[in-house]
Amino acid sequence: MGELSSTKVLMNGRFVDWNDANVHVTTHAFLYGTGVFDGIRGYYNKERKQMFIVRLGDHVKRLLTNMRLLRLNLNITADELTKEIIELVRLNDFREDVYIRPAIYFGPGSVGLNPAGHGTEYLVFATPFGKYLDTENGISACVSSWRRITDGMLPPRGKIMGAYVNSVLAKQEAVAGGYDEAILLTKDNFVCEGSGENIFLVRDGQLITPPVYADILEGITRASIIKLAGDLKYEVIERLIGRTELCIADEVFFCGTGAEVTPVTSINGRLINNGKIGPITKELHDKYFKIVRGNESRYLDWLTPIY
Ligand SMILES: Cc1ncc(COP(=O)(O)O)c(C=O)c1O
User: Fold this and answer.
1) Looking at 8, 159, 171, 287, which residue is catalytic?
2) Same domain membership, residue 191 and residue 99
3) What CATH number is attached to the domain comprising 116?
4) I want to staple 197 with a disulfide (CB 3.0 to 4.6 A). Which of 27, 150, 159, 259 is the partner?
């Protein structure tokens, strides 16, 4: 696996080589998707020779809280897991942007749906990671023919492994159709989110985003954007968004750990803002990237320096 083979992975509290970081075929999470995970980014600031992990405490908290949904029970505190994640990044001595993936899941055992007899396992891996979507030029999106799963069916707020098949179906369909990303609607046809990112619309200078009860993932970047926009004196409204508002919005953008702040310049072939990145999106985008690289003193408490 080239360079990655020398990377260490954390498995159940032990650092193992990348090539030895395997799970057993009877792992309940492999058979049924019964685990929770999170996605975290670290940004390397070359001038300061420093790695900043973004909102690490919030990601760890969300991950540990989500265990409750699946009745997972791991004997680890937020402090302990946080320290282990920091140690993993340090140990691998990454000097470029990274993506960090912790997961907590039901481990090996006998076949059967009840995971009660399966132990709870956890792992964290980190890998160099550049752009997930084109944050600089903007992307095309389509409204997916797949509907978002609902809270009473398979809770999207849980970041449950198996729930991501819903996102994969939408992403595959979008890419097969020549689009960069999918926008999923809720079962009631309101705008929900992208396959792996939250969505914001700009209308008449106001930011609008679906509320947490609209079957979205409660995104940490979404919370950052809401705070940032408020600090910049924009009004942010959390409300249900009709599908046709996508056609008349002044600006649309996605946000997420992977997606960062990604302008959407067309939806189903209809240009947004004449296909150009809108001014409010641009302002938030630029500010976001300054913040995550540690170049905005006001938001330094969002960052955990590693070295
Ligand atoms: C479905 C979905 N929505 C939104 C997000 C954005 O969440 P966050 O900003 O916490 O990364 C993600 C994950 O990145 C996601 O998988």
Assistant:
1) 159
2) no
3) 3.30.470.10
4) 259
**Residue 211 shares a structural domain with residue 265:** yes
CA of 296 to the centre of ligand 1 (A): 23
Confidence label for 2 from pLDDT (cuts 50, 70 and 90):
low
The range of the structural domain enclosing residue 93 comes to: 2-128
In the chain, DSSP finds a helix count (H) and a strand count (E) of: 7, 17
- Residue bearing the CA closest to ligand 1, atom 5: 197
Q: Examine the domain organization and report whether 47 and 164 are in the same domain.
A: no
In three-state secondary structure terms, 149 is coil
Q: How many domains does the chain fold into?
A: 2
100/222 same-domain check: no
Nearest CA to ligand 1 atom 2: 196
pLDDT number for residue 103 = 98
DSSP secondary structure letters along 198-251 = EEEEEETTEEEE--TTSS----HHHHHHHHHHHHTT--EEE---BTTHHHH-SE
The string of pLDDT tens digits covering residues 132-154 is 999 999 999 999 999 999 999 99
Are both 206 and 98 inside the same structural domain?
no
Q: 111 C-alpha vs ligand 1 centroid, how far in Å? A: 31
Residue nearest to ligand 1 atom 16, measured at CA: 196
For the residues 167-178, what does the mean pLDDT come to? Answer: 98
For the question of residue 287 being annotated catalytic, the response is no
Q: Mean pLDDT across the chain, nearest whole number?
A: 97
- Rounded Cα–Cα distance for residues 165 and 52 (Å): 31
State residue 1's pLDDT score. Answer: 47
